[in-house]
Amino acid sequence: MLFTENETNFAKLWGGQNEAPFVKDAFHERIVEGRVEAVNPEGVGTKGAAWYNFQNVPPGESAVVRFKLTNKIRNDGIMDEEEFDDTIAKRKAEADAFYHHVSPDPISDDMRNIQRQAWAGMLWSKQYYHFIYKRWIEGDDKGPPPPSNRKGIRNKGWDHMYIDDILSMVSPLLLRSDL
């Protein structure tokens, strides 16, 4: 397991000083560049990754790694493959039923798939976007200044918005079922 912090690498990007010794691109630096010291040796951080090296897999072949996040510990440490497959099949059926419910109108399979991906991104990514217009327009103290033409482009009318004013933005085309 590899761990780092979710901090920008100011030293690499702008020649500045990093706020934390372990930065966002630590996984790349460890795996691709071979820098062992790039990741946190204490095994803690706000970002984690599992790195597997399959030495017995012939060139052109692949290996499958299956994970089940659970708070239950089995004594033998082995997961029941059939139980795993059944659980995945049940969750897929539940997701199919949910997405059919939110989009019951007859639409093409391609459009339904696009719509499903859009909904999934909104519902399950649970990302919080902290938008501060003043910082966006003037730039962050720690980074380089924004381009000079930024004040005249698309978000220029958002100067009164802060934090929770923007909850979600979806293309109207993704919500229409008459296409």
SSE map:
Blueprint: E1 2-4, H1 10-14, H2 26-31, E2 47-49, H3 81-102, H4 109-124, E3 131-132, H5 133-138, E4 162-163, H6 172-175
Antiparallel strand pairs: 1-2, 3-4
Radius of gyration over C-alpha positions, nearest whole angstrom = 23 Å
Strands, count: 4
Strand order of the largest sheet: 1-2
Note the main sheet.
2 strands, antiparallel
Mean pLDDT: 79
Alpha-carbon distance between the two ends? 46 Å
Number of domains: 2
**Overall 3D geometry?**
flat
Report the order of strands and helices.
EHHEHHEHEH
Q: What class would the helix/strand composition place it in?
A: mainly alpha
Q: Tell me the β content.
A: 5-15%
Helix content: 25-40%
Low-confidence stretches: 170-179
| Count of runs of 4 or more consecutive helical residues | 6
Task: Please give a structural write-up.
This protein is mainly α and 179 residues long. The protein folds into two domains: 2-49, no CATH class; 81-175, no CATH class. The chain has helices at 10-14, 26-31, 81-102, 109-124, 133-138, 172-175; strands spanning 2-4, 47-49, 131-132, 162-163. The longest helix has 22 residues, at 81-102.
